[in-house]
Amino acid sequence: MALSLTDVSIRLGGGMLIHPVSLSIKPGEIVTLMGQSGAGKSTLLSFIAGDLEAPFSASGTVRLGGAALNDVPPEARHIGRLFQDDLLFPHLTVGENLLFGMARGPGPERLKMMQAALAEADLAGFSERPPHTLSGGQRARVALMRALLANPRAMLLDEPFNKLDADLRAQMRDFVFRHIRARNIPCLMVTHDRGDAPDHGRILRLKGGEVKDA
Amino acid sequence: MARTLRRLTPLAGALPLVLLWALPLLLSLAITAASASDTQAWRALLAHPQLFPALFLSMFTGLAATLTALLLTLIILAGFQGTALWHRLQACAAAGLAVPHLAFAIGFGFLIMPSGLLARLASGDASPPAWITVQDPWGLSLTAALAVKEIPFLLTAAFAALFRGDAARLMDQHARAAASLGHGKGSIFLRIIMPQLLAQLRWPLVIVFVYGATVVDMALVLGPTQPPTFAVVAWHALNDVEPAANRMGLAATLLLTAILAMAILTVHGLLHASRDMQRRFLTAGPSALPAPRIGAGIIAVIISALLLLSIFLLLPLSAAPRWPWPGILPPLTGGTAWATLAASPAPLLLSLGLSLAVSAVSILIAVLWLETQPEARDRWLLWLALLSLAVPQLAVAGGQYRLFLDVGLGGKLAGLFLAHLSLALAYVMIVLSGPYRGFDGRYMKAARALHASPASALIRVKLPLLKAPLLTASAIGFAVSIVQYVPAQLIAAGRFATLPMEAVTLSSGGSRPLTAAYALALTLPPLAAFLLAGIVGRPRWR
What we know:
The complex is a heterodimer of chains A (214) and B (542).
Chain A: E1 3-12, E2 15-25, E3 30-34, H1 41-49, E4 56-64, E5 67-68, E6 79-82, H2 94-100, H3 107-120, H4 136-149, E7 154-158, H5 166-182, E8 187-191, E9 203-207, E10 210-213
Parallel strand pairs in A: 3-8, 3-9, 6-7, 7-8
Antiparallel strand pairs in A: 1-2, 1-4, 4-5, 9-10
Helix pairs in contact in A: 2-4, 4-5
Chain B: H1 2-34, H2 39-46, H3 51-80, H4 86-98, H5 101-112, H6 117-123, H7 140-162, H8 167-180, H9 185-200, H10 202-214, H11 217-222, H12 230-239, H13 243-273, H14 275-282, H15 293-312, H16 314-318, H17 336-343, H18 346-372, H19 378-390, H20 393-406, H21 413-437, H22 442-449, H23 454-465, H24 467-482, H25 486-492, H26 499-507, H27 512-536
Helix pairs in contact in B: 1-18, 1-20, 1-21, 2-13, 3-7, 3-10, 3-15, 4-7, 5-7, 5-15, 5-27, 7-10, 8-9, 12-13, 13-20, 17-27, 18-21, 18-24, 19-21, 20-25, 21-24, 21-25, 22-23, 24-27, 26-27
């Protein structure tokens, strides 16, 4: 199902932060939105995810598979997110972090899915480890698997490679894009670094409150 | 010469704290612990007819008050989190914290007693209900008062944990991540915020439990009498003129300490044993559970109303000689109680003077320590301060009493001062050490580069920049000191009377207006101190 924005604008106090923008992202497509710090990229993601807070206000419609999401609370939107920080919960082990967003069901089945996800992330045997004992790259992989195990219908990436070093960045980029494409879900990524964008993907630029094709 | 002086400075900086606080505290605890070998005292204690029922009452009131306060605090936090009222709640909690326990207990008693305000509001013209609401045999009124009064403390401790360093931002991001994984606000609180918060509330909870199970002044006002709580049994024995009874009292405080320690370890063990169950709950999967906004609102309103009514009711009661049934409020016919209080101002003046001196000396000693000692040494000091709060006050006071008698400080003003200093300095160190150690040292380097001497840089740069935490710590030191009852009553040995001593004495059958006036006199100075600290401490540059 596609993720679409119709006439979405965001205001900050009395001023317009983002002028009305409409766009549609197809299943399996990764669209990159570029812009400088403070341009409003992350604010737009917050609006799509449903947790935009004062002093920002927004208008326009967010749809996922044709259904409007504006009145749906964040937890019921089925939109996965990756942030600049991995945000693994420190009081839970790596395995427990993965189980956290996984749909309820028989215990052994959930455990099997969790182990399979860890193996997929090259982290088999790490389920009992506390998150702080993992390297930055390992933590980033766990964060992605955690988001994907919650079965999202779309993904929002908020500069997820920002804090990784150059080598790790390239690896992680491939890892993330491969998994998102494999699940055939639409994805909007915001970044200020063009190098983060997938090859041959659509790139948009947010400048002066206007979103345009780069 | 210069090298010798440099070596002497850390020693001189540590001496006041060690001699006036740490050493007396450790010796007092040692004296109480030594009573373990007094077989006669133990025999007398074990033969005491009220031993087991009183112990049961103490444990019940302590545990029930702590669990109730914790549950209500968590519901309030869960319901208000992320709302516009979140920061206002912080200010309300701080105001509730400033109300002294004893004054609240007296006001709460006037509120719930059969001829109290609540009964008048509920019964209309009928005669007062024949309920036992104050000093009930199950300790329910004491439990309720303790629970209500500890909620502001737990809220303040929770806010301190939630706003420490980067915690608030991180917690907010965790909440967003959890929402994107399908969890509702209630589920996020239960599975993400609460487990991390509870880990940081362990010490405050221990302090609340120990305080609730060992409190004397509130128990004398609201607690049952036949039998009383075990703390009151120990208290009467410690106050007895008979040395044998006195030793039994010391053994009783030791027994109480041991039982509380066992209870805390048992709870810790149960929590550890139920770890798998907790894990299953945390990882059960997404739940849309919403935040308990309505429940939290109702609880916050009830708690605020109880706290406010209990204190504000003291105003008309202190200004009226009688409160005839069924009038909701007494007729304001004069302020004879205030005139009586003003006619014998010694307790008020002694309390104010002593608490001001204790607060000032506590700050001075704490700053001397923090300026001259390396940060690594704070750790053992803070442990000792926490220990002094987590050990029943009776156990410290009982040992302190014997120690001060031995060194000739019993019944002396200096002894009374040191008894007040013991708890006040512990709080001042806990509150002040974080902001003081967190001070950006580059400001001092900049001042020195501008030719300021070390003393001048301290007085003209560092202390003004640390004005807010210094004033808050002073207000806390003052508030803790002025409400001291147990150690002060023992050390004063009948030669001095302070506000809490008078208030407790009056509450057991004395004049109602005078009791209310003393309770108010006990409430207003700490409130004024916190208000002043808030106003004067506000940075000019923001």
